[in-house]
Write the structure tokens for this entry.
Amino acid sequence: MVGAIKIDGVVKRFAQQDAEDVVALSGIDLTIEAGEFVSLIGPSGCGKSTLLRLIAGLNGADAGKLYIDGEEIHEPTYERGLVFQNPMLFPWLNVHDNVAFGLKARKVYKQNKDEVDKFVELVGLGSFHKSYPHQLSGGMAQRASLARALVNHPKVLLLDEPLGALDAFTRMNMQDELIRIWQERQTTMIMVTHDVDEAIYLSDRIIVMTPRPGKIESCIDVRLSRPRARSNPEFLNLRSRILGILNFAGNEKEPSYYL
């Protein structure tokens, strides 16, 4: 499995009625290696989720190009899985059938039925194959959403604030689950987050973006050994450095969307 991403001079605008176009992204150049875990972080509205949707192929760039393994991205495919903040499970389907949905849509379910069970087990829902979304906790529903994306064996998994709606305890457990799955699957992962600590805990590299129009301010390598301790002085120093880049270093109270 590969999954290298190259973003070359990407610009994205959004038209507004009776107003100038909003420039969401301006001149984005970025290379993400196969198997890398990268987080995108920056102020609200800086284009993080827009960039993720461009990589997914859900939207097209107004200028520049995006590539996966040297092939230009034109449309969504199962090779790029996408997980949103809300699990978006089908309420009329149980966990097994939610996870199997993409395989059935691609008409490859029969030969991959065992894969569904495998990935339900992988995300720790082995006892909940027949449970429906309303019977699941928020963390369990997000696990099911991850399994639904992973069962297609994507080269790249795109995570749009996937843990943002969870309570703090569940969120930390899910962070560990993400790391475990990433290490086991060696899938390229690109995650949007507003949480600096989360980005440091999970990532090989953190991409800090500017306020709109979104540009890349810094690319920061996270050279901390795993598993990572949030109380480690190196962790805390890196946290201060990133907050400094975000122009919030020294504030008594950080904005809520960074906590």
User: Anything to note?
Assistant: The chain is about 35% helix and 25% strand. Residues 248-259 have pLDDT under 50 and may be disordered. The first strand starts at residue 5 and ends at 16.
